[in-house]
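pinned: reference chain
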Amino acid sequence: MTAKIYKSIAYEGGCHCGAVRFRVVVDNRKVNECNCSICTKKGFLHLIVSQDKFTLLKGDDNLTTYTFNTGVAKHKFCRSCGIHSFYTPRSHPDCISVNLRCLDDDVISQFEIVPFDGRNWEDNIDQLWENRE
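pinned: its structure tokens
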């Protein structure tokens, strides 16, 4: 199977109230839909990018962090509206996972959504690396 090659494109997005805004440069149009307890409740669609592809435009002072379990993942959310628009994932602690649903406009149709069995995280984590290619 040959990987699709896409031209890099920059998207902007943010939280509901607009206090947090960011820009992300995307090379790969695949996102993961995880079924773990937190991702299911948040409706998070994971667009994982390297840190150099993510720029926080405003709102650093309005972000707060939630951690649980191993404490590796840093779940960032807006302290005003509560939206989780991005975070540092346990699976890729050197990257940023942007919630595709928090990008401006309706861009979901431009991406392939790949299911990920996060309920059985340890058994399936290698699949996330495969899906980034």
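why pinned: The chain has one domain: 10-132. Strands lie at 9-14, 21-26, 30-34, 45-50, 54-58, 63-66, 74-78, 86-88, 95-99, 112-116.
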